[in-house]
Specification:
Layout lengths: L8 H8 L5 H15 L10 H15 L12 H28 L2 E5 L2 E5 L5 E14 L11 E15 L3 E8 L6 E12 L2 E9 L28 E11 L4 E8 L18 E8 L12 E15 L6 E3 L5 E4 L5 E17 L2 E16 L2 E17 L25 E12 L15 E16 L2 E14 L12
Antiparallel strand pairs: 1-2, 2-3, 3-4, 4-5, 5-6, 6-7, 7-8, 8-9, 9-10, 10-11, 11-14, 12-13, 14-15, 15-16, 16-17, 17-18, 18-19
Helix pairs in contact: 1-2, 3-4
Length: 477
């Protein structure tokens, strides 16, 4: 604003601030009109009338009123108008600061959140609840029909300032409580975040997929070869506008298909990483939903028992392979897994291969045995919504009588797991453990809304070996 009292300072001053406050714009316009059109002075308010209006505004919004002054010139009006403008600016700044400092509470389909006014601190609360019913018409002894509470996981996550994020997820399903996720993120940038704690190892594609987003109730056979959650430290990030993602870390080490135990049982560490590409992400290309990459891990393992050696399960969660009791892990464990997916409109396809090899010893007899598996899962959303790695969000939630029926999806999966032939009969008993398992799944998913999904799957697994006399284990249906 000009500080000069010469010429017509009001006509210069007021338009500069017109966009800030409507009250100032009206008052300044009135004063400028009185100054710029003396020929119409008799039909326009006088300076004294404008002064009285200014005093009324000062009384309403606060100002530097000078009571008892007999007459006011334009300079005095200008000064008082400036004081009123500044007073209004201060009020507006105080109001904005108060609104900025006020916490923000939100409850929506993503859960409940509490955030500080400046956005630096946030707490989000959500959860995952899964109940299953399993019904077998054939299979191994102990494959009993049952209802069960499979998953009961509240999750608390958020931020502690600009640089730190966190997540804590306990598990209350089962006979005892446990910790699923417990980690902190030091977020230097989207391209470089350090994660410390317990979280999912970066090797497997399906392993990294949320349980709530799976197309089928259970994970595929290929996930039996890849580590689940582990304790360690990891560097991760997104590059090239999210088209490239990476993760590399050092961990205590987890048995194939399982979570790591609470401590490092053999004083050896495992190194794991993953590199994933989505080259056309965000574009209009037909291949915009294509992603592919590879994960791997390597480390030494020394010890016998369930904390060191794997046991493989069917999609019906029945064990079909285990090593003999005297077998010990004694050397290098290596895993690698090429992986990818493609989503286009209602169609989805996820495929993955995995190899897990382990050096073993039993009574001085040594071998380096490799187990491999692969799977492909296809899906089609009948109601037309987009399929995705993160699940399906219905366009219209289930609402009887109002035309809302949620989203419906058909799914199918085929996969196979093969144990190294060198495992039999020295390291594994062929009368108990199968050499190969082949599983297929067909199912229907009904997404009633963003938070509720009902799923029906039919699963069938066939085996080679695994029964007395060299016979095949009975198919699990």
């Amino acid at each position: 604003m000009s500080g000069s009292d010469h010429g017509t300072p009001m006509s210069k001053h007021i338009p500069h601030r017109r966009s800030r406050l409507p009250v100032r714009s009206w008052l300044a316009g009135a004063v400028a009109l009185a100054l710029a059109a003396p020929a119409f002075a008799q039909s326009q308010p006088t300076v004294e009338e404008l002064a009285r209006r200014l005093q009324a505004l000062e009384a309403r919004y606060g100002g530097t009123s000078v009571d008892g002054q007999d007459s006011l010139d334009l300079q005095a009006l200008d000064q008082r108008l400036r004081a009123l403008e500044r007073n209004l600016e201060l009020q507006e700044e105080a109001r904005a600061a108060k609104e900025k400092a006020a916490p923000v509470v939100a409850v929506n389909d993503k859960g409940a959140s509490f955030r500080s006014g400046d956005g630096a601190y946030e707490v989000k609360i959500r959860g995952l609840l899964q109940g299953d019913g399993r019904f077998f018409n054939s299979g191994a002894p102990g494959a009993n029909d049952t209802f069960l509470l499979r998953t009961a996981r509240p999750t608390i996550e958020g931020t502690l300032g600009k640089w730190v994020g966190y997540r804590f997820t306990p598990e209350f399903a089962g006979d005892s409580a446990s910790i699923v996720d417990a980690y902190a993120d030091l977020k230097f940038s989207p391209a470089a975040t350090v994660r410390v704690g317990k979280f999912t190892s970066p090797v497997g594609l399906e392993r990294l997929q949320s349980s709530a987003s799976l197309s089928d109730i259970e994970r595929a056979l290929v996930s039996e070869l890849l580590p689940n959650r582990d304790l360690g430290v990891q560097l991760q990030g997104d590059l090239a506008d999210g088209k490239v993602s990476y993760a590399i870390g050092v961990f205590n080490g987890a048995v194939d298909g399982r979570d790591a135990v609470t401590t490092n049982p053999d004083d050896n560490f495992e190194y794991a990483g993953r590199l994933f590409f989505e080259p056309l992400k965000g574009s209009d290309s037909f291949w915009s939903g294509l992603g592919f990459g590879i994960g791997a891990s390597i480390g030494d393992v020394e010890g016998a028992g369930n904390n060191f050696l794997p046991r493989y399960r069917t999609p019906g969660q029945q064990q079909f392979f285990a090593y003999r009791g005297g077998v010990a892990a004694d050397g290098r464990r290596k895993r690698w897994s090429p992986q990818g997916y493609f989503y286009r409109g209602p169609f989805g396809l996820l495929a993955e291969y995995a190899s897990s090899s382990q050096e073993l010893d039993i009574g001085g007899t040594r071998a380096d045995l490799e187990t491999t598996a692969w799977q492909a899962t296809a899906s089609w959303v009948l109601t037309g919504e987009d399929a995705s790695y993160r699940g399906v969000k219905p366009a219209r939630a289930f609402s009887p009588g109002k035309g809302g029926w949620g989203a419906w999806e058909l799914v199918a999966r085929y996969g196979r797991l093969e144990v190294d032939e060198g495992a039999f009969p020295v390291f594994a008993d062929p009368a108990v453990s199968a050499r190969e398992a082949t599983a297929w799944v067909a199912g229907v998913n009904w997404y009633l809304n963003s938070n509720l999904k009902l799923v029906v799957n039919y699963l069938q697994t066939g085996f080679e070996g695994g029964a007395a006399g060299g016979a095949d284990r009975e198919d699990e249906k």
